[in-house]
Amino acid sequence: MQPAYKRILLKLSGEVLMGxxxxxxxxxxxxxxxxxxxxxxxxxxxxxxxxxxxxxxRGVSESARNMDRAAADYIGMLATVMNAVVLQDALEQIDxxxxxxxxxxxxxxxxxxxxxxxxRHLEKKRVVIFAAGTGNPYFTTDSAAxxxxxxxxxxxxxxxxKVDGIYTADPHKVADAxxxxxxxxxxxxxxxxxxxxxxxxxxxxxxxxxxxxxxxQTPGNIVKAVCGDLSIGTLVSx
Length: 238
Hints:
By secondary structure, the protein is of the alpha/beta class. Helices cover about 35% and strands about 20% of the residues. The chain contains seven helices and eleven strands. It has helices at about 25-40, 70-95, 115-125, 140-150, 185-190, 200-205, 220-225, and strands spanning about 5-10, 45-50, 100, 110, 125-130, 155-160, 165, 180, 180-185, 210-215, 235. The strands form two sheets. A nine-stranded mixed sheet has the order 4-3-5-2-1-6-10-11-9, sandwiched between helices. It has a two-stranded antiparallel sheet with strand order 7-8. Strand 1 (about 5-10), helix 1 and strand 2 (about 45-50) form a beta-alpha-beta unit. The longest helix has 25 residues, at about 70-95.
């Protein structure tokens, strides 16, 4: 298969790493994700990943309702670091060179995020995992994905979810929800579709950075997305 992109950023929700559990990390799922990423890596594509932390702690979750929002968001950032280190270990077990770069300073676990160094790692064919979001409270990992993708000059954001694209409504709740094959950024904002948060969508729209939304749980879908197969999800573009 011929890849359609040379450099991609995968936005991976923390919930994907839960597997069938209600909480935490299923290492079998982490290894399965790592194998999917290795298949993309072996196509010669430069791969960056932004991982969420919702499987461990989310700043706007029910468990954080009595907390100061900034403090809760910082705890959420630490959760993403945990997920990033687990994913790094899973990748290195299958011989994929990997670096974790964190927006908050944790030198024992991760390198600090430095844009030029991140690009250099990618050029040296290392998978780069960005942890700790943007390093700022009140910003989601969706915003971090958009920001990092632009900083490293990625050609597309691949958003791995539990559904196979963007629908007119939640397909788990509305039986006759219709899937979009392609959709414009402006429509996503106007219809308030829950793809990524509005600030991330706006950032991608302003900089003409497409987003491919697809089901991460279907084996082989990452490779298909990288090769430009629109049948497996929804492409958001200008």
